[in-house]
Structures are given as structure tokens and as C-alpha cells.
């Protein structure tokens, strides 16, 4: 029996062992979905603490419960390990690792290539390798495919290579891993068929495309669309503010149009693992073809300027109160990049905190989801700081993230001006200000 038929039979019979490389906000929900349908999962991660927590049946992501993890570990359906030689045990190896930008805002594929190099010596015929990490068109063809063939395998005959972009939206209760349609592209027709069989076990709707490059481009288009439209409303916000018009009121009224309009909302800047980063993957790749992606770059400039706009508004509000920014005590409400999650990757609140402190403000933060700041590459100097209570002991409060918990706060009861970047609070002259 050929490697193709053996692998497909294992997947169809649910005898396949699913290897998930990278057990973060993408990898862990995907692992749990495979477990839900009765497949076994082997999680591989370089973080020993993550592996130990999972083997103890504990979740380290707030919106993911521990119960299904504990149940799977007890039933010996799930293992987590840092030993990458165990990749040879898995029939499917799905890479869910970060793809950040480097210090020069160019793609950093080191997590992808390092993971591939770690599993390469342990590959065997009859495995499928899937990349889910967001990246530029051509990554699967140019980085993974040659490595597999250099190791002596024929892609599409021995090893099957697939790109299927993740579409996780942490904290979104309206959609789950199962219900979000999944785009699948294969390096060959046989690779696509294997990818469709694999994801067909866990996803309700699959969208096959003609190549891995097309699948990679789909993910970038989705996030560039959002980046450009958020930049548009951020720019409109600053213009309307000069005209004494509330952008949030405008958006709500415009949303009544049942066709030809889709609401996007302004904020203090972009955060998360996708929108602040992914557009620049295409910008970088386009330069290889002598192209300038001016629209994408302009959107990036506008969005990255928003923390500075918030700091300027803080200065203006404090001036109205007769106080200088230097020495003022400022509370930042919300450190997560979006509401109701503990995900602080690329959060614009960090940049606002940094800019305020550069101007000698005394800055604290509150976030019910992030009690203590974790180490990060860009903001390591903030690691270890703890969330503090919201009170009147500040000169200014800036709402950065619209957590549900903050909806219970009445700014009228606080003896502190509030700068609202999310349109959460009703307008109170002299008390609530927009940014």
C-alpha cells in the first residue's frame, strides 16, 4: 500500500496521531478540536512550562478551560512534550508557531524554519506536514518543500505538504475552531486531498484552493483588508474630532445601511498577532517583484501613529485640568490587545505606557485578565509589573481595552477625567474625553 493510501486510511479510521507543534493561542484550540472527535494528539513545544501544565491537565490560556485537557491526559489521548524527536510518532505534523517581524519590520521565519529543522531528521514516509502560521506567499514552496526533498523524500508521494492558515479569534464566542471555514492548499493534488481529509474530520466547511501560495495569500488579504479599514476610521476619527463630531455615533448610524457598508472601529492602535504584522509580509515580498504596496504601507503608518495620538490627547486633557503630563499619575485600563482575553501580543497599550513614561508620567495599569506583565521581546522592561485597582488616586485614566468588566464603571462617580479610546462610555462634558 502506498504512503498516500496508508495515511488516508489512518485519518479516515481516526487511528492517526496528530502532532501539533506550537501550543499557543492557535495550536492548543486545534489540539482540543482533534481530541473532541476522537483522535489522539501529541503536542510539541519548546516551552517546558507549557508541556508540564498540559500534562498536569491545566490550561494556561484564560478562555480555554482545563477540564477537556485533564480528561484527555487521563485517558492517555493527549501528551505534551519538548522532545522533538517524537515527531516520528505522529502521522500529521501541524506547525502553529509565531511569525513575527524583526527589528527592521521584515519577516522573521526563524520559528518556522527552526521547527522544521528540528523535526526533519525524524520524518518518515506517510506523514503530512501542515503550516498554519501566517506568512508571505511562497513560504511553503520556498522554505519547507526544499528541506523535505533534500532529506530524501518526494513531496506528494512520501511526504504530503499543506498550507492552511489559522483563523482563530481568541475570546469570540460566536465562532469556534469547528465552525470557522478553513482554507486548504496543497503542494500537489495528492497533498491537497490529504489536507482535506485531515481537516474534514474537525472543521465543518473546507475551502480548497489551487496552491499553497494561494492559501498563503488568502490569509494576508483578510488581515490587510482589516488593517486598511481600521486605518481609515482612525484617520476619520482625528478629522471628525476637529469638527466636534463623535466617530462612534457616525459609525453606529452608518451601520444602519443594510448594504454597501461594513463597520470598523477606531482605537488606540493595532494589537494581536495578525493585523499589526501580516500586511508587512506582503509588503516585503512585493519588493522582490519590484512592486510598492503604498496602500498597505500608508495604513500601517496611520495605525502605528495612534498611540502617539492618544498621548497627545492625554497631554491636552491634563492641560485642561491645569496639570502637566510630567509627574502626573496615569492609569491605563486594559493591557490586552482586545476585549475579554489575556492576549497582550503587540498591544498598543505597551507603546502608550512607554511614551507616557518617556515624558515622565507615572504610569500604572489595570487588567483583570493580565494580573502581571509577562516577559516579551519588545517590552521586556515592563515584565513583572502588576495590575492595580482603579481608583481616584490618579490624575487621568485612559481606557485602552474595552473589557466587559469596565462596562460596570460609571465615570461620573470617579473624581478623575477619563480618556476613552474605545467609545465605551457615554459623553460627559469635562469628565469623559475621546481619543
Description of the structure:
With 435 residues, the chain is α/β, with parallel strands linked by helices. It has 2 domains: 3-211, NAD(P)-binding Rossmann-like Domain (Rossmann fold, 3-Layer(aba) Sandwich); 248-434, NAD(P)-binding Rossmann-like Domain (Rossmann fold), CATH 3.40.50.720. The chain contains 12 helices and 13 strands. It has helices at residues 3-12, 27-36, 48-55, 67-74, 110-119, 139-150, 189-200, 212-242, 247-254, 278-288, 294-320, 348-358; strands at residues 17-21, 40-44, 78-81, 92-95, 127-131, 159-163, 182-186, 206-209, 329-333, 362-366, 396-399, 418-420, 432-434. It has an 8-stranded mixed beta sheet with strand order 3-2-1-4-5-6-7-8, with helices on both faces. Strands 10-9-11-12-13 form a 5-stranded parallel beta sheet, covered by helices on one side. Strand 1 (17-21), helix 2 (27-36) and strand 2 form a beta-alpha-beta unit. Helix 1 (3-12) runs parallel beside helix 7 (189-200), helix 8 packs across helix 10 and helix 8 (212-242) packs parallel to helix 11. The longest helix is centred in the middle third of the chain and has 31 residues, at 212-242. The termini are far apart. The model has no long low-confidence stretch (mean pLDDT 95).
Amino acid at each position: 500500500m502506498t504512503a498516500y493510501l496508508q495515511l488516508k486510511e489512518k485519518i479516515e479510521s481516526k487511528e492517526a496521531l496528530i502532532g501539533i507543534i506550537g501550543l499557543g493561542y492557535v495550536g492548543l484550540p486545534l489540539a482540543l478540536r482533534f481530541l473532541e472527535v476522537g483522535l489522539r494528539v501529541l503536542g510539541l513545544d519548546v516551552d517546558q512550562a507549557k508541556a508540564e501544565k498540559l500534562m498536569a491537565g491545566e490550561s494556561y490560556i484564560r478562555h480555554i478551560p482545563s477540564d477537556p485537557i485533564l480528561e484527555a491526559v487521563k485517558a492517555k489521548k493527549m501528551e505534551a512534550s519538548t522532545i522533538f524527536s517524537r515527531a516520528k510518532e505522529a502521522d500529521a505534523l501541524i506547525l502553529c508557531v509565531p511569525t513575527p517581524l524583526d527589528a527592521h519590520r521584515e519577516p522573521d521565519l526563524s520559528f518556522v524554519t527552526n521547527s522544521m529543522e528540528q523535526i526533519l531528521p525524524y520524518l518518515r514516509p506517510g506523514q503530512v506536514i501542515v503550516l498554519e502560521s501566517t506568512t508571505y506567499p511562497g513560504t511553503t514552496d520556498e522554505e519547507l518543500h526544499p528541506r523535505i526533498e533534500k532529506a530524501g523524500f518526494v513531496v506528494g508521494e512520501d511526504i504530503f505538504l499543506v498550507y492552511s492558515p489559522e483563523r482563530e479569534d481568541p475570546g469570540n464566542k460566536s465562532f469556534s475552531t469547528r465552525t470557522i471555514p478553513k482554507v486548504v492548499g496543497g503542494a500537489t493534488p495528492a497533498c491537497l486531498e490529504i489536507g482535506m481529509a485531515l481537516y474534514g474530520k474537525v472543521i465543518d466547511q473546507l475551502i480548497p484552493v489551487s496552491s499553497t501560495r494561494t492559501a498563503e495569500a488568502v490569509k494576508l488579504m483578510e488581515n490587510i483588508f482589516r488593517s486598511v479599514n481600521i486605518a481609515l476610521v482612525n484617520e476619520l476619527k482625528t478629522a471628525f474630532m476637529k469638527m466636534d463630531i463623535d466617530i462612534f455615533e457616525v459609525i453606529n448610524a452608518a451601520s444602519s445601511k443594510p448594504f454597501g457598508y461594513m463597520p470598523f472601529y477606531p482605537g488606540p492602535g493595532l494589537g494581536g498577532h495578525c493585523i499589526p504584522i501580516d500586511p508587512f509580509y506582503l509588503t516585503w515580498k512585493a519588493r522582490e517583484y519590484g512592486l510598492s504596496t503604498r496602500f498597505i504601507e500608508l495604513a500601517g503608518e496611520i495605525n502605528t501613529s495612534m498611540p502617539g495620538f492618544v498621548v497627545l490627547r492625554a497631554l491636552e486633557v491634563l492641560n485642561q485640568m491645569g496639570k502637566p503630563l510630567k509627574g502626573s499619575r496615569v492609569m491605563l485600563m486594559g493591557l490586552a490587545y482586545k476585549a475579554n482575553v489575556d492576549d497582550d501580543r503587540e498591544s498598543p497599550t505597551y507603546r502608550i505606557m512607554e511614551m507616557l513614561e518617556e515624558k515622565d508620567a507615572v504610569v500604572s495599569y489595570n487588567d483583570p485578565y493580565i494580573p502581571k506583565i509577562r516577559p516579551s521581546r519588545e517590552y521586556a522592561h515592563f515584565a513583572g509589573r502588576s495590575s492595580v485597582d482603579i481608583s481616584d488616586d490618579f490624575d487621568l485614566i485612559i481606557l485602552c481595552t474595552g473589557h466587559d468588566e469596565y462596562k460596570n464603571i460609571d465615570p461620573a462617580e470617579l473624581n478623575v477625567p477619563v480618556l476613552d479610546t474605545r467609545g465605551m462610555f457615554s459623553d460627559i462634558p469635562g469628565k469623559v474625553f475621546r481619543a
